[in-house]
C-alpha cells in the first residue's frame, strides 16, 4: 500500500492546476438558481472549455473521445476541480455520467456517433426518466408503457424526479414493453428526444423552493425503434449498467465541499461572540462535534482512495460505494446542521447559503438509492443475510 | 497510490489469521475469561508460551530491520497484523511490546512482555503489569522501569476479563532513560495507530459473530437476519468497520512516510481521525453484537460482551475519541 501519487499522476495534477488557475478567473458569475436556460448555458460553456483543453470525459475511453484516464487520475481531476471551486458538472451530469457511458457499452455505432461527441462538447443535455410516481426504490415496478407500432414505440406514462428536464435535449427512458413478463424481463431502455410531440414537462417545487426536478408526462409519444439501447425487454440489465456508473466517484467533489463548509463554519464560530463572553468556538461541545465531523470527512477520503484503488485493480467496489454513500450523505447532513447551529437565529432565511444547503441535503439520503436501500444492499450482498420476502 | 493490500500483505494477514484461529479458539477465550469476579492477577495472567509464540511468529519484531532479526516492514503491515490480533481478542500488552522491540531486550522475540504507562494521563492505570517484566513510562521522554518497581495494586473484576489492570498508587520516579521527547511523541502516535488497528479488528470480530448468529437464530419462523430492523443494524456495523479500516491504513501510511494529502491536513490529523473512527466502530459494533444476540447477548457465556469490553478498554488508550476530536478541531 502506498498513498503517494506517481510521477505521471503528479504531472497530470500540476498541468490541471495550472490550467484551472488560468481559466477560472475568466468565468462569468454563476447564474441564478431558477434561471434554467442560463444554467444550461453556463454548465455547457464550462463543458466546452473542458473539451477544448482536453479534459472532457475524463473517465470515458479514448476511442470514444474521452481522456481514458486511470481511476487515480479521475480522482485527481474531481478533487482538484472541486478544491479550485470550478463549476460543477451540473446540466451535463446525466449525459456525461449516465447516458454517455451507457451508450459506450450498450449503444449502436449510429447512436454513439450521434450523441457521444455532442455530449463531450457540451452541445447536448440529457435528463433521466427512470423513477415514476409509483416506482421509486422499487424501480422494477415501473409502468410507463411502450407499445410497438411499425418501426416506432408509442409511449404513455409519467416519470418523476427528472432533473434538468426543462432544458434537456434527450431523456434516458425506461419503459415497459412486455406487461406479461416477469417484472425485470419486460423493460426497455430508450432514447427520447425531448422535443417529441406529447412530451410535457411540469416542474416540481422542492423544499428548497426551487424547481430542481420536473415531472414528465408522456402522452402517445412516438419514438423510433432505432432509439432503443440494447434489446427489447433487456432494459433492466442496461439500466444496471447505467447505475454502475452512478455509485463510483460522483461524490468526490462533495467531500471537498464538506471540508470547506466545516472550516468555514469554524471560522464563523471563532468570530461570533457568545453569550456571557468569548466566542462560540470556546464551547467544548462544539469543538468536539466539529472534530468528530473532521474525522468523518478524513475517513471518507480514505474510503474514496480505497475504492479508487480497488477500481484501479479491476475490481468493482460495490460494498465500498454503498458504505461511502451511506456515511457521506449522513455526515453531510450533520455538517449542515452544525453550520446552521453556529449561525443560530441568523439561519432563518433560505437566502443564507448554509440554510439552503441544510434543506438541500435532505435529498442526499434519498436520491440515488436511499440510505435504507444502501443498508439492504450491504446486508444482503456484502454480509450475505437472507433476503426480505419480496416480489419477483 | 494504492490502498489495497498487496499479495504479500494478504499472505501476512492470512498467516496471522490461521495461526490465531488455531490458538485462540472460542472455547479458549471462554475459559480464559471464565471467572467474572476473579482477581486480576489470578484469572487472566498471560501464558508465557502464548507470548513466545507471538514472538516466534514475528509479531513484535515486524518493524525491525532484517539485520536485527525483524522483517523490515512498515506500520501499515503492523496495522494489518494488529487488526487480526484484535479480531481474535488476543490478550496482552501488544502495542507496548511491539513498540518496545529494539528498545527493551526480550520484547522483540516475545521472551518478555512489556507494558506501558502514559504519564500524560491524569489516572495512572497499567494493563498486564503482573505478566510484564518491564514498564515503559511515556512522558516527555521514554523511561524503562522493572515492572515490580512500580507501586501499584491490581483492580478486582477488571472490565475486560482478559485484561487485568493495576492502579498505580505512587507516581513513578526514576527508571532508565531510553528515548527522547521526540521518541515519546513518536511512541504515542504509533500507539494510537496500532490501537486503532486493534479496534478495527474488535469491530470486525463483533460483526462476524453477530452476522453468524443472525443467520442461525430463528424467530417468527424466519432467520432474524432476514428482518430489516436487524439487517440495518448489521449494515451500519459494516459501514463503521470499513470506514475505520480505510482511515487506519491511511494513518499508518501517513506516519511512515511522505504522502500526498493523507487527510485534510497531515499525518497527525490522519492518526486522530483513525482513532476517533476506530473507537466508534469497535464500541458501536460490540454493542450491536450484544443487541443482535438478544437475551443471550447479556450472558457471560456468549463472547459478544468480550468484544464490547475490549473496545471500552482500548478506547481509553493513547487518547480517547473525544481527546482526538479536540485535536482535530484545533486544526480546523
UniProtKB/TrEMBL annotation, chain A:
<dbReference type="InterPro" id="IPR052161">
    <property type="entry name" value="Mycobact_Acyl-CoA_DH"/>
</dbReference>
<feature type="domain" description="Acyl-CoA dehydrogenase/oxidase N-terminal">
    <location>
        <begin position="7"/>
        <end position="123"/>
    </location>
</feature>
<dbReference type="Pfam" id="PF00441">
    <property type="entry name" value="Acyl-CoA_dh_1"/>
</dbReference>
<feature type="domain" description="Acyl-CoA oxidase/dehydrogenase middle">
    <location>
        <begin position="127"/>
        <end position="221"/>
    </location>
</feature>
<feature type="domain" description="Acyl-CoA dehydrogenase/oxidase C-terminal">
    <location>
        <begin position="233"/>
        <end position="382"/>
    </location>
</feature>
<dbReference type="InterPro" id="IPR037069">
    <property type="entry name" value="AcylCoA_DH/ox_N_sf"/>
</dbReference>
<protein>
    <submittedName>
        <fullName>Acyl-CoA dehydrogenase family protein</fullName>
    </submittedName>
</protein>
<dbReference type="InterPro" id="IPR009075">
    <property type="entry name" value="AcylCo_DH/oxidase_C"/>
</dbReference>
<dbReference type="Pfam" id="PF02770">
    <property type="entry name" value="Acyl-CoA_dh_M"/>
</dbReference>
<dbReference type="InterPro" id="IPR009100">
    <property type="entry name" value="AcylCoA_DH/oxidase_NM_dom_sf"/>
</dbReference>
<dbReference type="Pfam" id="PF02771">
    <property type="entry name" value="Acyl-CoA_dh_N"/>
</dbReference>
<comment type="similarity">
    <text>Belongs to the acyl-CoA dehydrogenase family.</text>
</comment>
<keyword id="KW-0560">Oxidoreductase</keyword>
<dbReference type="InterPro" id="IPR006091">
    <property type="entry name" value="Acyl-CoA_Oxase/DH_mid-dom"/>
</dbReference>
<keyword id="KW-0274">FAD</keyword>
<keyword id="KW-0285">Flavoprotein</keyword>
<dbReference type="InterPro" id="IPR046373">
    <property type="entry name" value="Acyl-CoA_Oxase/DH_mid-dom_sf"/>
</dbReference>
<dbReference type="InterPro" id="IPR036250">
    <property type="entry name" value="AcylCo_DH-like_C"/>
</dbReference>
<dbReference type="InterPro" id="IPR013786">
    <property type="entry name" value="AcylCoA_DH/ox_N"/>
</dbReference>
Automatic annotation (TrEMBL), chain B:
<feature type="domain" description="Acyl-CoA dehydrogenase/oxidase N-terminal">
    <location>
        <begin position="7"/>
        <end position="94"/>
    </location>
</feature>
<feature type="domain" description="Acyl-CoA dehydrogenase/oxidase C-terminal">
    <location>
        <begin position="193"/>
        <end position="330"/>
    </location>
</feature>
<keyword id="KW-0285">Flavoprotein</keyword>
<comment type="similarity">
    <text>Belongs to the acyl-CoA dehydrogenase family.</text>
</comment>
<dbReference type="InterPro" id="IPR009100">
    <property type="entry name" value="AcylCoA_DH/oxidase_NM_dom_sf"/>
</dbReference>
<dbReference type="Pfam" id="PF02771">
    <property type="entry name" value="Acyl-CoA_dh_N"/>
</dbReference>
<dbReference type="InterPro" id="IPR037069">
    <property type="entry name" value="AcylCoA_DH/ox_N_sf"/>
</dbReference>
<keyword id="KW-0560">Oxidoreductase</keyword>
<dbReference type="InterPro" id="IPR009075">
    <property type="entry name" value="AcylCo_DH/oxidase_C"/>
</dbReference>
<protein>
    <submittedName>
        <fullName>Acyl-CoA dehydrogenase family protein</fullName>
        <ecNumber>1.-.-.-</ecNumber>
    </submittedName>
</protein>
<dbReference type="InterPro" id="IPR036250">
    <property type="entry name" value="AcylCo_DH-like_C"/>
</dbReference>
<keyword id="KW-0274">FAD</keyword>
<dbReference type="Pfam" id="PF00441">
    <property type="entry name" value="Acyl-CoA_dh_1"/>
</dbReference>
<dbReference type="GO" id="GO:0016491">
    <property type="term" value="F:oxidoreductase activity"/>
</dbReference>
<dbReference type="InterPro" id="IPR013786">
    <property type="entry name" value="AcylCoA_DH/ox_N"/>
</dbReference>
